[in-house]
Amino acid sequence: xxxxxxxxxxxxxxxxxxxxxxxxxxxxxxxxxxxxxxxxxxxxxxxxxxxxxxxxxxxxxxxxxxxxxxxxxxxxxxxxxxxxxxxxxxxxxxxxxxxxxxxxxxxxxxxxxxxxxxxxxxxxxxxxxxxxxxxxxxxxxxxxxxxxxxxxxxxxxxxxxxxxxxxxxxxxxxxxxxxxxxxxxxxxxxxxxxxxxxxxxxxxxxxxxxxxxxxxxxxxxxxxxxxxxxxxxxxxxxxxxxxxxxxxxxxxxxxxxxxxxxxxxxxxxxxxxxxxxxxxxxxxxxxxxxxxxxxxxxxxxxxxxxxxxxxxxxxxxxxxxxxxxxxxxxxxxxxxxxxxxxxxxxxxxxxxxxx
Length: 355
Ligand code: ADP
Ligand code: TRP
Fold this sequence. Notes:
- This protein is mainly alpha-helical.
- Helix content is 54%, strand content 6%.
């Protein structure tokens, strides 16, 4: 459309958005709006793979839409929609599954992690390949649902049905993107068509960011329970930052920085000015640093980003009329485009009407 490349991305409706989602995904969505033809959605069907409470799921969809708008996604500029509002996605998911192997799905890292988690199976490094015995053959009477297995098919359809070129996501989603490219190539070559472009991840030149947790762990994430949320109030947020894990402090000049303290610097680099970062790096190098000052600065700088977003989230969350209007318009545009691709896919596969 209008010569611009198509961008598509989504976030599962599984809870409030945190700084990891913001720096890894949402802030990129906002920056791409002007230069690309952008579609952003809330992945409610993907959230079903972990069997959420139905009322909670509905509330989560609303809060993510409010967070998208509050962070600066502009419905005049981007198409914002909910995955389940585009039923063409579900139909194409059935069709594409006919070209996806269960073996390749079972070997996907996210499936193995989630399936093992659901069954309470510990990772056995020595038996990494014997996934069937571990998951299908589990003695437990718990089940791993088929939706979890076919998660990558659904994600590929989200992308391919809009013929997207660029998909801004964090590093953890790269395997899913690799599968999407493989499915696109396979479909094109099986039917001898050039229907789908091969989508690529997108970052503004730099390497994809990984936002660390403040508990000394590697990654900020919902299931890690170490998140700073965009919706956190000032008191809660300051408390979380002041409690961040550090160490005893540098004892000798230019001592290497420990991983836990490096996490604080990483967050500071994402939220503060280069001068502020340099001030604290220098203070670390000459051993004059006080972690309390660093944390106070970090809390101030995070709050400068999140508090205005929080105000807008609170306004929007009670405003179902605005949310409804945005989503209705977004669904119309997304469906229009999706139904064109679905018609092509049906024709190519031989699903043709007699009337
Ligand atoms: P979570 O890991 O909290 O469950 P999701 O899997 O819903 O988050 O991720 C939604 C988007 O946010 C994805 O594009 C993902 O790559 C990105 N993301 C999540 N956590 C981080 C993080 N700590 N650093 C960078 N990006 C992240
Ligand atoms: N799997 C993504 C996540 O967990 C969410 C997602 C679903 C997605 N469909 C997508 C992301 C299509 C980009 C494009 O974060």
